[in-house]
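Allow me, if you will, to draw on your knowledge of protein folds for a short while. I am sending you one protein, given as its amino acid sequence and as whole-number tokens for its backbone shapes. Kindly check, if you would, that the fold set down in the tokens agrees with what the sequence suggests. The record follows directly beneath this note:
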Amino acid sequence: MSRSTQDKEFWELPDRQLKKPPQGSKTLNQVILPMTLNVTPQPDAAKKRAMNEDGAKAPSSARRESRAGRESARSAPTQRRRTPSGVKPSARTTAQAGRAPVRSAHRQAKPEAPKKPKATYSKKLMQMPSGKWFFTGAFAVILLLSGVITAIIEAPAKIAAAQSQSASIAAAESAALQEQLANQLVVGEQVGPVFQADWTMRTVESQWVRLPENGRVDMSYFNDALFVGDSLTQGFTTYTANGFENAKFAAYIGAGPKTFIDGTVVKDTGETVRPLDEVIAANAKKVYILLGTNSLETMSDEGFLEYYRQMVTLFKQNLPADTIFYLQSIPPATAEKIAENEKFALDRVRNLNEQIAKIAYDNGVYFLDLYGVLADETGALSPAYSAGDGLHLNAQGYEAWREYLITHTVYRPGVLYLPGSPYYTAAPSA
């Protein structure tokens, strides 16, 4: 390590006071310089003064002899100085070999450095390369904590505002829903807690349009009811114990939709009447319609459906606006009857019933799935309900039909429901 490096490290030691070496101790030059130049160390100050005094007393002749000796030494061959084996003498040492040691002026000690003011901890920290990053990180942490605290403080207010906004949106949607339901005919007609059909339907299907089970009504519900149909409907008058004795009937053997549009029929009394006039004269508040079984043998599907639409439109035009219409699906035939006559095929009957459900939906009237009530697991008429010809019903069949109609009615607050019904209300005591 060179002297300059040692001095620099010495003087740059923080907050260290440089002190002069004690009296009589060797200086740095006295130790390092002889090692570098390979010369005799300089004498101390006392010896130097003595030498100067001796030199002053020496005669000038002695000085001249000394000078002559030095000159002769210079002219003599240079003698190599002994060096330790294996060590190559330096150029400077070789050049100085054979001549007297040269006295060099004693280097004065470097003056004592002024005391540096003690730096504070923050200043020293800032002077360190990592100090700036420390303060930057601390500032970032403070900002982050302030943001978190602000978010915690403002969270309840934001949550309350969001809940208020959600409640407003829900109220608006509920109001819009109620308005849409009120503007529907069948769709939106309240059936107890159930709403008939769905106004978002793209394809009308009987399973979505059919009237759900509501409450079991009292038989007085049918006091102002009219049953329109063919021989199947007429069977209620035969099985009076399982029928509706208090209801009215406009049912004729072999009748179809066209019969009620422009046809005439002959009653049992021999009187010829127009079925449409019978329907209008009944002045019914509820009209149950079941037609189609006879038309399966006599008409095409397109012709039947067209007459069916015209019949419903004609009834609505000639009956009061508050009249409730129930369109009933065509019952199936037994498996034996279907095997005998393919016109009663199940696929055909199902397709016609789907179209009847659509007619009910389009005209704002109700659809009753009588087919599902009377069919067995195969889709054909259950043998337990068949009268034997594969089309008409026995007493059990009419009982099942009657039970279905009693439990599937449009909900009205003034309707009397039997005990056990979810809508039963006890009559007020006198």
